[in-house]
Write a structure and sequence with these properties.
This protein is of the alpha/beta class. The protein has 2 domains: about 170 residues, Rossmann fold; about 70 residues, no CATH class. About 35% of the residues lie in helices and about 25% in strands. It is globular, with a radius of gyration of 18 Å. The two termini are about 30 Å apart.
C-alpha cells in the first residue's frame, strides 16, 4: 500500500535550484533510506515533505491526499534529540498528544504504554541529562511516533552516537520498527547504515540534488548481525560506492 508519494518536486533558494525533479515513494511499513553526501539537498527534501517549505513545482501526497506546503501531516526527527531539559521524559514524550488536545494525564497514560516496547522502562520521571545518548534517542523516536504513526522522517538520527552505541541502536531500531511498522524515510550519509536499516535506498547526487539511483535491499527484517559481514552486504556496498562516484 502506497503511503507517501513525492511527485517531481523542485526547490530553489535565492534563485538557485537546491533539489530538482525528485520523485520518490514510500510504502506502508517500509524503511527507505535517502543516501548522499553532505550538501546534496537531503534535508531540503525533508523540509519540503514536512511542509516547512513549499516546492517550486511538484506535489506531495499522503495516502492519496495532497499535502504540499502544509505542516502537521508527518513526524520529523532531527539529528539532535531536542528533548526539553526542564521536562521529565514522560512529559517530553507526551508533548505531541498534548498538542493534539489530549489532557496531560491521559497523554502520560498513552505514552507510558509504549515505554517498555521502546526500552525506556523506569525512565518516566528522569530528565534528559540523566539519560545516555542512546536512551535519549529512543525517547525522541517514541515522541516522533506519537506525533504521527503514519510516516516519520528521520534526519541522521544516529549520527551523534559513538560507534558502539550506534551499533546497539541499529539492532534496537530494527527490532522496534518490526513491531510498530512505522513507514519511515531515513536520511544518512553512512553507507553501512543505509544498507543495514533500509528496505530500499534512493541515492541523491549532483547540484542541484537529484535522485540518481534506487536500490532494493533483498534481506529479511529484522536483519541479524551476520548480514553486515555477508557477501551480499559487501556487494550492495560496492554497488553504492560505484553509483556515488558517477
Amino acid at each position: 500500500m502506497r503511503r507517501l508519494t513525492v511527485n517531481n518536486i523542485t526547490v530553489s533558494y535565492e534563485g538557485c535550484k537546491t533539489i530538482e525533479d525528485i520523485s520518490i515513494e514510500l510504502n506502508k511499513g517500509e524503511i527507505v533510506g535517502i543516501l548522499g553526501v553532505s550538501g546534496v539537498g537531503k534535508t531540503t527534501l525533508f523540509n519540503a515533505i514536512a511542509g516547512l517549505i513549499k516546492p517550486d513545482t511538484g506535489t506531495i501526497e499522503l495516502d492519496g491526499r495532497n499535502i504540499t506546503g502544509t505542516t502537521g501531516n508527518v513526524s520529523y526527527m532531527l539529528q539532535k534529540d531536542l528533548l526539553l531539559p526542564y521536562k521529565t521524559i514522560i512529559d517530553n514524550v507526551s508533548l505531541p498528544l498534548i498538542i493534539r488536545g489530549e489532557k496531560k494525564s491521559r497523554s502520560r497514560e498513552i505514552a507510558s504504554g509504549y515505554f517498555e516496547e521502546f526500552g525506556l522502562e523506569e525512565t518516566q520521571g528522569k530528565y534528559p541529562n540523566q539519560l545516555s545518548g542512546g536512551m535519549r534517542q529512543r525517547a525522541a523516536l517514541l515522541r516522533t511516533y506519537l506525533f504521527s504513526d503514519q510516516v516519520a522522517l528521520l534526519d541522521e538520527p544516529f549520527s551523534a552516537l559513538d560507534s558502539i552505541t550506534k551499533s546497539s541502536m541499529h539492532k534496537w531500531y530494527l527490532g522496534v520498527m518490526d513491531q510498530i511498522k512505522l513507514s519511515t524515510l531515513l536520511i544518512t550519509h553512512d553507507i553501512d547504515e543505509a544498507i543495514l536499516l533500509s528496505d530500499r535506498i534512493y541515492i541523491m547526487a549532483g547540484k542541484p540534488g537529484k535522485i540518481t539511483s534506487e536500490i532494493v535491499i533483498e534481506a529479511f527484517r529484522p536483519k541479524n548481525e551476520d548480514f553486515i559481514v555477508s557477501e551480499s552486504f559487501m556487494k550492495y556496498k560496492k554497488s553504492i560506492l560505484e553509483k556515488l562516484k558517477n
